[in-house]
UniProtKB/TrEMBL annotation:
This is Ribosome biogenesis protein NOP53. GO terms for biological process: ribosomal large subunit assembly; rRNA processing. GO terms for cellular component: nucleolus; nucleoplasm. May play a role in ribosome biogenesis. Residues 291-307, 328-353 have a biased composition (Basic and acidic residues).
């Protein structure tokens, strides 16, 4: 960096005296002022005031000893115990006012002593105390050393507790898995094997067999009614092909009213302007007297309504007995409704519930017609399937959900391929056969 050249100015005029550099003089004067402020000028002070003789023994700094190669090095695992300089120290709360905490605690104690707590707060405190006591008793019971409370060499031992803890003692001291509440409950009270009607026997009586046929007939009639309903709501809703409307009928129906001649004699259009609101005549305009009467009438109506409401409230005070009767009646109706719901819920337990997307379909009644009955078991043809019967029974008892066989659908259509040269070979074979003839 080049030093700036000092300006050369002529000093024979007062005008140029102001441009003279006097910074060193200013610095000297400022230094003297500072010395006067801080204890006096240094040039006027003696050596004793400025210096002192240091007679203290110098502290010898310990010289680190040379480390030998045989000395054990610090273990790497101990480095985890050293503080990490990159981790910031934990922030400690520094603005907590202790007087606020003391005041809050004192207020809580005074509220408990004066019994000014709300019911919910009282219940919460009661639960806290009980929980603390239970926790203390539980800890004490764990610390108690178990000891025998019976004579080992005499008397009978109560085996009930020992039987309960057999699983805990044998299986590597593991507690048994806690089973859900519904594990030991049956999903349905229906029997696993339903006894068939007497008419299903291989040699039934006439009345029993007719009763079985009557039951099967009811099921078939119900199915026919369902099919008829579906037909009535689908196919029968539309006309047949001979009675169906044609294209000409549709065109005639759509063009109805388009080509009729308009009657000129019917209502001519009014060209006069008519407003939505009717015109108000001068003689029908309300006078101040009519307005005052209307206002008085409205005030009287409101007064009558208020009086009627007051009378109604007064009469309700004398209707306490009747109101009490209504309340008891409503409570009785509610209890009856709840009882009905409970009975319905109990009846629903015995019925088959819907567990999946498919509805349970009861199996068909297994029966023999009158001409198919035989008197011996050797000539009897079996009806139904035992495996299907068990499968349907589990569905009916809500053990498994009803299912349907999944149909196999092709993702793509099958293509027919013709081998190359297959047609030419067939043509040559037919040509050779003609030549032999």
């Amino acid at each position: 960096m080049e030093r700036k050249a000092k300006k050369r100015l002529s000093k024979n005029k007062k005008k140029t005296w102001k441009k003279t550099d006097v910074q060193d003089v200013e610095d000297h004067l400022e230094d003297q002022r500072l010395q006067e402020r801080t204890g006096g000028l240094l040039a006027e002070k003696t050596d004793e005031q400025l210096f002192f003789v240091d007679s203290t023994k110098p502290v010898e700094e310990p010289v680190p000893a040379k480390r030998s190669r045989r000395d054990p090095k610090p273990l790497k695992c101990h480095s985890a115990l050293l503080p990490d300089p990159r981790i910031k120290p934990a922030r400690v709360a520094h603005n907590i006012r202790r007087d606020n905490l003391k005041r809050k605690c004192a207020k809580k104690v005074s509220d408990i002593q004066n019994d000014v707590l709300s019911p919910t707060r009282k219940e919460a405190l009661h639960n806290q105390v009980n929980a603390k006591l239970n926790r203390q008793t539980r800890i004490r019971s764990k610390k108690i050393t178990p000891h025998a409370k019976f004579d080992l060499w005499g008397g009978e031992i109560d085996q009930t507790k020992q039987e309960d803890d057999d699983h805990f003692a044998t299986v590597t001291r593991k507690k048994p898995v806690k089973l859900p509440s519904y594990h030991n409950k049956k999903p349905s009270s229906l029997p696993a094997v339903e006894v068939a009607l007497p008419g299903a026997s291989y040699n039934p009586t006439y009345d029993d067999h007719q009763q079985l046929l009557h039951v099967a007939n009811k099921v078939e009639v119900k199915k026919l009614k369902v099919e008829e309903k579906i037909l009535r709501q689908t196919d029968h809703m539309f006309p047949k092909a001979d009675k169906a409307p044609t294209k000409q009928d549709h065109l005639q129906e759509m063009s109805a009213g388009l080509y009729e001649e308009e009657d000129d004699s019917e209502g001519e259009e009014d060209t006069e302007y008519t407003s939505i609101n009717p015109a108000v005549r001068r003689d029908k305009k309300k006078t101040p007297q009519t307005r005052r009467k209307e206002k008085e009438r409205k005030a009287k109506e409101t007064q009558l309504k208020l009086e009627k409401l007051k009378r109604k409230k007064d009469t309700e005070l004398f209707r306490i007995k009747s109101i009490q009767k209504d309340v008891t009646k409503s409570i009785k109706q509610h209890s009856e409704k709840m009882a009905k719901q409970q009975t319905k819920r109990a009846e629903r337990k015995d019925k088959t519930q819907r567990l999946g997307s498919n509805k349970f379909e009861a199996p068909e009644t297994e029966l023999k017609l009158s001409d198919e009955l035989v008197g011996s078991l050797r000539l009897l043809k079996p009806e139904g399937n035992l495996l299907e019967d068990r499968y349907k029974s589990m569905q009916k008892r809500n053990i498994i959900e009803p299912r349907k066989r999944v149909k196999v659908y092709r993702k793509y259509k099958l293509k027919d391929y013709k081998k190359p040269g297959h047609g030419a070979q067939a043509y040559m074979n037919s040509y050779k056969a003609k030549g032999k003839k």
